[in-house]
Specification:
The protein has 84 residues and is mainly alpha-helical. The protein has one domain: Vaccinia Virus protein VP39 (Rossmann fold, 3-Layer(aba) Sandwich). Helices cover 43% and strands 10% of the residues. It contains five helices and two strands. The chain has a two-stranded parallel ribbon.
Amino acid sequence: MQSSKLDSFYTRQAPLYDITRQMILFDHQEAVRYLDIQPDDLIYDIACGTGKNITPLLKKINADHIHGFDYSHALLAQARKNHP
């Protein structure tokens, strides 16, 4: 998919991304539970989308230690709204 088409796709999807992905992207809390995260660790969430993994991560580590990266500026903007 060309980058402009990909940008357009995720720009349209960003506001609804979490709602539409509930059935296929689930168990974030379960996945994070298996990680041996220590208070001083740094977390780099690659392809973080709307930041769905951040909520369970915040139970284990300070928000200043979590860094999200994503190709889509629209999804990152949604992640910032979800986790100011």
